[in-house]
Amino acid sequence: MELTNALAHRVVVLDGGMSTALEQAGHDLSDELWSGRLLLADPDAVRAAHLAFYRAGAEVAITASYQVTYEGFSRHGIGHDETSALLRASVALARSAASDVDGQRWVAASVGPYGAMLADGSEYRGNYGLGKQELVQFHRPRIETLVSADPDVLAVETIPDVDEASAVVDVVRGSGVPMWLSYSIRGDRTCAGQPLEEAFAVAAGVDEVVAVGVNCCAPEDVAHAVDVARKATGLPVVVYPNSGERWDAAERAWTGDGTGFGALAGEWTERGARLVGGCCRTGPDAIGVLAAALAE
């Protein structure tokens, strides 16, 4: 069954934070390449993380390609052909993990924002100072390579502003490849400060866009975003916020207990969310709790 068909009938459970699962397994992700480095250094660890999420109840695995870009990897001596191979491997690893569990599973190829390549937190600010065509040129090669690996859907995620969303939509428009578009937000605006109505409108009427929503945000910001997304596009809504813990940049540590994540999921689905999972600080255990709650 295609993912779009499933969304017409029920809520589909996404996985959680790949980096969280890898860190919980003891891997150091402190360099600029983040979880993408393990596609090269330890692909078995990436497969194991996908499998842990699938076994916890996730039906969709988001690949470890978020941080994998030709520009970013070239700075670390990794050439174009090797980067292409790693992008394709990210999809293959998630697909391989799915073969070890029963039931329908899907693979979403992660397309992270331009700011992820900069590794300086720009994905939470946007407004990179680039023109739309420059963003199109950045995203097109990576998206084309990921598409060649035959994922079920492209997960265009953690997009901070309307300009970048518009550029990615232009790359995918007319391709026939399904995608979801997910913004990083603060309160009722994108991280770049734009109204959510304007942000979601970018996806309205684009055949390839099968869902819109938010990720890598506070759980308490999700409900309003679901309402706006539904009104602006009429599409299924995808939500995968952080656990609710906060990153203290000065102390370089997470604060809070993350109890708000699972408790709010029922409200999100009642409002129209159809793809629900977690982002930062949500490992397989958190997704297991979420999947059980949604099953009830």
UniProtKB/TrEMBL annotation:
InterPro entries: BHMT-like, HCY_dom, HCY_dom_sf, Hcy_S-methyltransferase. Zn(2+) binds at C216, C279, C280. It comes from the Bacteria. Its cofactor is Zn(2+). Keywords: Metal-binding, Methyltransferase, Transferase, Zinc. Residues 1-294 form the Hcy-binding domain. Pfam families: S-methyl_trans. This is Homocysteine S-methyltransferase. It comes from Lentzea flava. The gene is mmuM.
